[in-house]
Amino acid sequence: QGVLTADQDIREEIRKVVQALEQTAREILTLLQGVHQGPGFQDIPKKCQKAREHFGTVRTQLESLKTKFPADQYYRFHEHWRFVLQRLVFLAAFVVFLESETLVTREAVAEILGIEADRERGFHLDIEDYLSGVLTLASELARLAVNSVTAGDYSRPLRISTFINELDSGFRLLNLKNDSLRKRYDGLKYDVKKIEEVVYDLSIRGLNKEATGG
User: Which CATH superfamily is domain 1-125 in?
Assistant: First the structure.
């Protein structure tokens, strides 16, 4: 009985921190969603800077989460924070993409979140959580490609297309055993297709030449 009660207490403590993390993640998402609106393109650097400040809060909250359960029982309680961690990976990856149009590494995300990349070193970023977050980034970029055209930016969809195709090639090399990850990966095919349609549309209208200066 005592063990069960202690277990419940731990889960309750974890839940409280996870709720706070979810709230911070929502604030970062709301902030970054602004890039999809026309004027948002002008203040991308400002939005990224603000988002990085919010990640300071995330680090504090994750620090607190680490103290709520025995260090060697990460996977016992993993399902409590798995979803919010995947969302935070996506948000960190989106910020890095907006800043430099590169794919954030797992090590770099772990650093942004203030946690470990290596399982041996404690509270870490699970590889499947990292991959899940990256797949969410792909659908966000498909949306950004469409909205870039609306905002009159014709070169961004071409760069997004190159990026997503490289991402897709990378995922093809993986042997995905995890079911939810496989399902998410299936969604990537639609994102690739959606972006290809945008690029095709631009080429038909002759706008891709304008974008590449050709």
Answer: Translin; domain 1 (1.20.58.190)
Say whether 140 counts as a known binding-site residue: yes
On the question of pLDDT at 214 being above 60, the answer is no
What's at 2, amino acid-wise? G
Residues of the chain with CATH 1.20.58.190: 1-125
pLDDT higher than threshold 80 for residue 38: no
pLDDT tens-digit profile of 66-84? 999 998 999 999 999 999 9
CA–CA distance, 199 with 210 (Å, rounded to integer): 13
| 3 state SS of 78 | helix
CATH number of 127-213: 1.20.58.200
Q: How far from 6 is each of 144, 169, 207, CA to CA, in Å?
A: 46, 46, 63
**77 Cβ contact list (under 8 Å, min separation 6):** 10, 11, 14, 69
Specify the higher pLDDT residue, 95 or 213: 95
The token pair that represents 13 in the structure block: 């403590």
Is pTM beyond 0.85? Reply is yes
Tell me the two tokens of residue 212. Answer: 């590449």
Label residue 29 exposed, middle or buried (CB < 10 Å: 0-12, 13-18, 19+). middle
